[in-house]
Sequence to fold (228 residues):
Amino acid sequence: MVHNEDDLALLTHAVYSPKNSSDLNLPTIILLHGYGAHGLDLLPLAPHLCEGKALIICPQAPHTVGVPAGYQAPSNNQMFTWEQRDEHGEKIEGDIEEMVSVLESFIPAALRKYAAKEEKVALVGFSQGGSLAYRLAFSNQITTSAVAALSTWLPDDLDQIDSLPTDLPILVQHGTDDPMVDIERGRESYKRLETRGANVTMKEYSMQHEINQDSISDLSIFLAKYLT
Fold:
């Protein structure tokens, strides 16, 4: 697959670069936000992951979330989604596959632009972004050192993939009181991956649909193990 600088313009994105770092060949974490969030949503995690020594790239989903008639969302609080729905609320066929393709072009372009260490890249996704991280990791188009799936689910159609990367470290995190994505979906995803021989670990937390201090700490330890 050939990539060029135009691929970087495919998605609005935010970047965190470690302070006082003269090393341009940095390990990198791609953070994928959830439904209704935006490109800056997960950026505050940056100083807390790998002691703030990793390059962080936060792409923003390209589709805006519809709001009720008469409601004007603040300009600094727009909501975005990786997957569109039609007027009946149904998923649009081929839409998520197209989004995976966009990210497969964007990520390599971003790694080159910011002089990242391309063999040390982790995918971290929250909720809808987590299901997308699974898709990207299993597409075999991006070299990935580790994947963290937070408060999310493993898409059913990925069970049909024969070339599951069983040596890829995967961390599943989920809140026991999650009202948005029930923890059973996280547990089921973990069991499906484990059954197929994946290198997967699951950690549960007393929290809702969120990321708390304990989960951040465990996430940082996991990422540092495979990136630094």
Remarks:
- Residues 5-227 form a domain with the Rossmann fold fold (CATH 3.40.50.1820).
